[in-house]
Amino acid sequence: MNESNFRFYFENREQFTVEQTTALRRITFSSVLCATGDDIRLLPRHSFIVGNQSLIPCELIPVLDLEPWRE
Questions:
Q1: Contact assessment for residue 61 and residue 36, using Cβ atoms and an 8 Å cutoff
Q2: What is the pLDDT of residue 65?
Q3: Which GO terms describe its molecular function (predicted)?
Q4: What Cα–Cα distance (Å) separates residue 35 from each residue in 4, 12, 17, 19, 61?
Q5: Cβ distance 68 to 23 under 8 Å?
Q6: pTM of the predicted protein model
Q7: Which of 4, 17, 20, 47 has an alpha carbon 20 to 30 Å from 11's alpha carbon atom?
C-alpha cells in the first residue's frame, strides 16, 4: 500500500476512534455476506480461508456493532 492510499486504511488513527476500529476488526467477509446476502443461512466463519471449514449459522458470525458511531 503506498503512502497516498494509507490515509484511507481503516486502522489509520486519524480515520476512526479506538472503539470503532475494534468493532471493524471483529467483522469478516462472512459477516458481510450474512448481512447482505439473500437467504444465506450457513457459511464458514472465515470465507477467504481455503480448507475444510465447518459451516456455521449466520447467527453465530459477528455483526457490525454500530454503537461506537452513535452520537
A1: no
A2: 96
A3: heme binding; peroxidase activity
A4: 31, 25, 23, 21, 10
A5: yes
A6: 0.73
A7: 47
C-alpha Rg value of the chain to the nearest Å: 15
For cell 455483526, what's the residue?
A: 63
H or E, element range at 56:
strand 55-57
Cell of 20: 470503532
User: Among candidates 48, 46, 71, 39, which has minimal Cα distance to 60?
Assistant: 46
pLDDT(6) > 70: no
8 Å CB contact between 55 and 69: no
- 9-32 pLDDT, tens digit per residue, is 666 677 888 899 899 999 999 999
